[in-house]
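Is iron/sulfur cluster placement plausible here? Inputs below.
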Amino acid sequence: MRRTTYRTCPFCEATCGLEIEMEGREVASIRGDREDVFSRGFLCPKAFGLKQLHEDPDRLRTPLVRRGGELVEASWDEAFREIDRRLSPLLAEHGRDAVAVYIGNPNAHNLSSLVFGPVWLRALGSRNVYTASTVDQMPKQVSSGLMFGAMLSVPIPDVDRCEHLLVLGANPLVSNGSLLTAPDMRGRLRALRERGGKVVVIDPRRTRTAEEADEHHFIRPGTDAHLLFGIVHTLLDEGLAAPGRLAEHCAGFEVVERLARDFAPERVTGACGIEAREIRRMARELAAAGRAACYARIGTTTQEFGTLASWLVDVVNVLTGNLDREGGAMFTRAAAVQRNGQGAPGRGKGVHIGRWHSRVRGLPESFGELPVSCLAEEIETEAAGGVSPDGHTPRGAQVRALVTVAGNPVVSTPNAGRLERAIESLDFMLTVDIYVNETTRHADVVLPAPEPLEKSHYDLALYQLATRNVANFSPPVLERADGQPAEWQVFLRLAGVVAGRGPNADVEALDRMTIEALVGRELAEPHSRVAGRDAAELIESLEPRRGPERALDFMLRVGPYGDAFGADPGGLTLEGLERSPHGVDLGPLEPRIPEVLRTPSGKIELAPREIVADVSRLRASLARSANGSMVLVGRRQLRSNNSWMHNLDALVKGKDRCTMHIHPIDAERLGLEDGGRAVVSSAAGRVEAPVEVTDGIMPGVVSIPHGWGHDADGVRLRVARRHAGVNSNVLADENVVEPVSGNAVLNGIPVEVGPA
Ligand code: SF4
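Reply from A.M.:
I modeled the complex. Tokens:
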């Protein structure tokens, strides 16, 4: 019997609504949900991967435990007994920091992970926590945290009302938006242009977004901060800065003014490769536009000056008066938010990076995690001690065990070869994943994660970065098969092991403790909408829900649109969302300054100390100019998202996509031909890739997409193996990180290129 169900796509940040027809337990069809309040029927080819993932015979359905060197099927009880047997003695003997954790990108789309991941991580208590953030967006979170006081206070382009959009290092037509939740970016950008607006793209590649834009400028990889400082200089130099009402909410104008003096367009042009008169024109047009936004993404964060570039984007938005203005760069007001003791509206504790440092290299933590570029050395290096560059004494133990959750760091992080060798030397490795991939093939225990259709979905994180205030909840489409625990129960059972409660912890009791902690944090907030209410009574009101649904219902009800447990009878509840399968539209973005700020000063910190200290490094780089050598950048692909979608035939079939793009001038100079093969080598490694000659890339730059390289022994990905590609992160140097955020430098890697 057929039934239709509506569901938010979990595969990227766009949160598209899907209409899924089920025939029993089989997926009959998937199409865009035309009534979805946000995506209005839009979807991309990746959505069909949901059906293939459901059917994929390589997807794990049973725990695996290593016996005699082989991963063999085991029951959940056997798997947890093995975890307890191996992990608990390590924790007892070597301490909490001896167990490292790597959390992969799909966790950002996973309600269970977002609610219960922190629970077991707190129970573990290790300082060796790593995530995909430090090979991705960490610089933006650092700059936003320092400027506005919270790591997710990221200004989002108000695309639907914007009249001038300056896009740097982002390809939203292919990514469908990143740190910008906005389904159908093609439609939204077309609408922007149809209402007379302008889109300008800055990128070393002529991306699909660039092809649709009014203007595209090639830029030398890693020099977005130079260009942006040139724009800031022009705004100030030509008297174009007009922050308007923001002026009274900002601190540090004079510091920005002083710093910008050294970055006249005529001085930065040599570094970034864009003519000075063009930079001045960009600044003048931004200033003249009624509603404009500057937006930047991965090309600007995974590079040498990532935090500076991220900061300057918002300095430009402030100076042009576009921050927190309709049609500019605004702050989303999400329906459900987890409290973290950040402070009252308008003023808070701000953020502090570098509260501890990695043991070996002394790199600072950000928001509770260390740069993943450090992971290999933390496993390999025996001796403790050392002093970080800022004088702190790093602490911690040698990493002897690793837990990965929905991650593939061997493919996704720098110098894959070294990390892989380090992982092979571990005493124990546990993974929660859907596949045996390049990383999880080394695990001693593999716990299968449920497929998306088997769990409820709500984009707790991504709705904080959306271009419109929306909320949409998807209940599970399929029951878990008999005996298979829900994912949140797996996390709690794991919390039990690392807390010393053994392999059969009382999951119900731990779930109760989780909701009590959530309610307790809310009640501790002086401005809470349920301040003064009785915790037990509030929890009682959430019956009979359990797990992530109970936590979500609570967060929605105390949130800005919630019913506050009866105080606003028309307000949002999870039950209300369940009655609205196409989502609830909560309106366009609205100005939020000063209420959104959580800095100790209650101001927008235009010149945070940590960022200002890095400007001298940028100034020193002005003397550099192109020397004829080649640099490597990545590229986003419509039918791929990092490393894990390559086992879905519909998304990998056809022409080889893991190719090296090179400009015809360089190809001729280096003796390369379209369709031939090239050797690309760097200080870290060497790969061989098929050549694609195209004038869509800047001379002096080559591009290989990341996330490929699936031909290793022991990988159980039959389709991906046939489309293996090469792992471009073999070329990234783990010793080169952006110093403020610790983010890996994956764009602008110096390489030598020649025929294979
Ligand atoms: S754009 Fe993203 S959310 Fe939308 S269908 Fe594609 S993968 Fe899913």
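Short version: The mean pLDDT is 95.
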